[in-house]
């Protein structure tokens, strides 16, 4: 037997992800990517093969390139929307409109505990009551009442529902109102919220907990949604420990535990998380055998003797879309196109620099692949001055206090102490910002109270 949710999904199975992306873009306005670049989002940007001479990309342009790369990938491969059970759909984007499969409510229902009454009072009360979840009760006659529970079906010919606190019974057991009774009061009529076939939510809606509840109430078992982009994580380096205290030049791996839940909060499905030493062959094998939509690497993006990301990209003929970004921390981050539908984001090895790369390149790419709308840009004044880089953007952890943002200490590239206490990252322009100056803020998923807090 076909469930209601499955039936609705089958009717929209031909809608491809790019159509959903287009509708989301049309409804959400321009993505938050900083100042517009020449030609707009749709204009191709010249890129260079791995290893060619280049200049670092500005921070706003790097984010715009990541969005464009995701749109191109969605056009290259027509990914079929997925039919997802409600309990697995949190955070996905609807790829088909949510239309009611039934009237809501589907019958006249009591909005309160009390009595269903017919005609003017006082009323003779039936012995049996009416409970939620039972078949339609026997009709009432004028002068008759019956005990009724919230959500129960209203007996035919009911005039109103009298709340428990608004009625009293006399010594003969007859029911009297203690205030005026208005025809139809405390009855939820059939179809009050919607009629079968009404569109409840459009394509591009994010599946929040409330959306899942509405879908269930409207008769759905599954939702037709844009599938989560799949991500593999490669943690590179010989110097990393997975347990215990640092010793003998070895350090704990902070990115292995941090990146997978952060990527899930950004809407990704995380596949494998692999730790690979400074071995060029192992890096090449891991990159070329992954079938994920996005590969995220940590470390190895500079030009040192054991930095194997660039040589691997050259070997496989990858196209470097971004090779270095004018941002601190995180300058040596990169974005490469491996195939039409596969990309690699190379994060620096320093923890806060890796966070910068994650929010600069991975966030806009994953958000666009998942067809999530871009968050609305907003600014707050900085409580304190923030030193800037002479020519690069800085991303600085802040906490939000009242109507301002307080910059946090411990914001060096290798530090996580500041970001662990932060609500957001402030985007500080070249040259820095003074006290009271407005700064754009990038929310952290868990600080917004939104669906991004669901890491599992």
From TrEMBL:
It comes from Streptomyces salinarius. Its EC number is 2.10.1.1. SMART domains: MoCF_biosynth. The keyword GTP-binding does not apply. It comes from the Bacteria. Gene3D superfamilies: MoaB/Mog-like domain, MoeA, C-terminal, domain IV, Molybdopterin biosynthesis moea protein, domain 2, Molybdopterin biosynthesis moea protein, domain 3. It catalyses: adenylyl-molybdopterin + molybdate = Mo-molybdopterin + AMP + H(+). It holds the Pfam family MoeA_C. This is Molybdopterin molybdenumtransferase. Belongs to the MoeA family. Catalyzes the insertion of molybdate into adenylated molybdopterin with the concomitant release of AMP. Residues 22-58 are annotated as: Disordered.
